[in-house]
Design a protein that fits this description.
- The protein has two domains: 6-164, NAD(P)-binding Rossmann-like Domain (Rossmann fold), CATH 3.40.50; 177-268, ProC C-terminal domain-like fold.
- It contains twelve helices and eight strands.
- It has an eight-stranded mixed sheet with strand order 3-2-1-4-5-6-7-8, with helices on both faces.
- The longest helix has 23 residues, at 250-272.
- It has 273 residues and is of the alpha/beta class.
- 55% of the residues lie in helices and 13% in strands.
- Bound molecules: NADPH dihydro-nicotinamide-adenine-dinucleotide phosphate and (2S)-3,4-dihydro-2H-pyrrole-2-carboxylic acid.
- NADPH dihydro-nicotinamide-adenine-dinucleotide phosphate (NDP) binds at residues 9-15, 35-38, 41, 57, 70-73, 75, 78-79, 97-99, 120-123, 175.
Length: 273
């Protein structure tokens, strides 16, 4: 497959994460472009590599095989308007990573024939450990599906979902998910300090425990319940902690939080219209 020219519209956190992952995987900087009205965001990109940058979206999109919309949902209408003529004239693939923004609302601004992949990545993309859910419209041909899979595959795991609505659930799980784990770690570190540990010690132990647990969950062939059972000595310390979590409704707390994220994604879709 030839190397596609990829234009990023919006050069914030997620664009940086994806660009960092692409460069790490060997994608040439000269085949990337980025546009952002905020000069500091464009300057920050230069730390990753010599990526051509533009203040004007249409200029960045011009000549690109793939245009990645990496702006906040609130400015999506404006961003779509700025690339519409390039997309229509060149049949470029559009990949949107915005939470909640539906394909229908993008088609309304790009035209019915636009080839659109809606995607929900996450920030660990920066380390090549991302997880992205993808959904393609029927206008997306095999070669363009290949581009989408190669771009998001360069920064981690890719899962095609069977229906667009699954992307709101993916957003609630893996899109927002890194923040849940960071919050859990923050709480563990604070609690470790309350129990008398130095903050540096509590931080190092929480970080390594998260890494070790994630690797065991991913790399072994043992399921999560069994992994948990192996830590939990009958009548021991883990049992005391896990019973405390269960009594305080941790599972329902997590389910409620993810429903809130899913609902918010649907609300954001209605806001763009
Ligand atoms: N952060 C995350 O973990 C994830 C985010 N997403 C999605 O990614 C998208 C981007 O999020 P994130 O990177 O965090 O946001 P950021 O705010 O970090 O980045 C967006 C960038 O777009 C710029 N921008 C604003 N208006 C325009 C415009 N009209 N044209 C071009 N660029 C513009 C912003 O500039 P300025 O700051 O000046 O407004 C900013 O630099 C969102 O839609 C979000 O839903 C998806 C998965 C995970
Ligand atoms: O918080 C948000 O809306 C975005 C989408 C997923 C992660 N960050």
């Amino acid at each position: 497959m030839s190397t596609p020219t990829i234009a990023f519209i919006g050069a914030g956190n997620m664009a940086r994460s994806i660009i960092g992952g692409l460069l790490e995987s060997g994608h040439p900087a000269q085949s990337l472009r980025a546009a952002d009205p905020f000069p500091a965001s464009l300057e920050q990109l230069q730390a990753l590599g010599p990526i051509p940058t533009f203040a004007d979206n249409a200029e960045a999109a011009s000549g690109a095989d793939v245009v990645i919309l990496a702006v906040k949902p609130q400015v999506m209408a404006e961003a779509l308007g700025s690339i519409a003529s390039h997309v229509a004239e060149n049949r470029a693939l559009v990949i949107s990573i915005a939470a909640g923004i539906t394909i229908d609302s993008m088609r309304a601004r790009l035209g019915e024939q636009a080839a659109i992949v809606r995607c929900m990545p996450n920030t660990p993309a920066l380390l090549g450990c991302g997880a992205s859910g993808l959904y393609a419209t029927e206008q997306v041909g095999q070669a363009q599906r290949g581009y989408a899979e190669a771009i998001l595959g360069a920064i981690g795991l890719v899962e095609w979902v069977p229906g667009e609505s699954a992307l709101d659930a993916i957003t609630a799980l893996s899109g927002s998910g890194p923040a849940y784990f960071f919050l859990f770690m923050e709480a563990m570190i604070d609690a470790g300090c309350e129990l008398g540990l130095e903050r540096s010690t509590a931080t190092a132990m929480a970080q390594q425990t998260a890494l070790g647990a994630a690797r065991m969950a991913i790399e072994g062939d043992v399921d999560l319940v069994e992994l948990r059972r192996r830590v939990t000595s009958p009548g021991g310390t883990t049992q005391a902690a896990v019973e405390s979590f269960e009594h305080s409704g941790l599972r329902e707390t997590i389910a409620r939080a993810m429903r809130a994220a899913n609902d918010r994604a649907q609300e954001m879709a209605r806001e763009l219209g």
